[in-house]
Amino acid sequence: MRDPDMLNFMEKSLGGGKVMSQKQFLDNDRRVLRFFTRSDGKPYTVHYYLADDTLEIRECHYPNDGTDSFSVCLRRQKLPDRIDVNQPGQNFIGDNYLTCDEITPDSDINAYGRIYEITGVDQFTQGFYAQNYGYNFPLGSVKHDAPADPAPRVPPPYNGFGDEQDTLGQMYRLVPQKPKKDFFKAMDNSAKILRFTAKFNTRVPEDVDRRFIISFYLADDTISVYEPAQKNSGIIEGKFLHRKPYCNVDNNNQVITPADMPIGGNVKINGHSFHLLSADEYTTNYLTQFQD
Which member of 167, 262, 265, 271 has the lowest number of beta carbons within 10 Å of its beta carbon? Predict the structure, then answer.
């Protein structure tokens, strides 16, 4: 019987024969086994290249999954069966590597201490193992977890800059935009102002006789409060509340409208309770039409 090593040497000396790795590459080039796995509850795809017995692990992502989109979890390489570092003179990492015949339907893939549970394979991999090893792998695909229910958007508290619409704009854009005004409402109600005289709902002696002029601007539903001068009151006249929309705490914090300001009634503006005493003729006629 001829020595196989000598026979192989003679064939190569005469220009024949092929290196085993070269023969494996030519026979199995572009033939890849695909395993669908899960590890720590996340899906991964394992590719085993028959051409050189290398293996790579890829992460499976979907849009807005909340994780960093690293495509390759383990770059293509031969996977050693042991990863411990031994003492000098003993075996080191890389003595034995994982081969396709060691992967069975009942086994898992151990990649550097991390376990990947096989949940399925593609059609080519199933046929390859059935023909060569008699293994019956189930067909599978990438299975993503069901997306979590979206968290409800909670409006942030008003931060004091601009108006409340400016603060709400931060919920929808990283760079807030200026709120859009109702153009047609502003044009139709330009220079239309409802004016009321009011006083505090209080028993404090210093504030009982104080009077205010409340102006409601129909163009943009803003309110301003002015305190006129009164002799010997000891209070300087001037602007009491800046012009801006104010919310009605008694109506689910909705923006105050003319319906919330009846003559002879009460209204709370920015924490101050006012009693509306009277209104000018235009305001009285407007409120009468509004009530009808």
Answer: 271
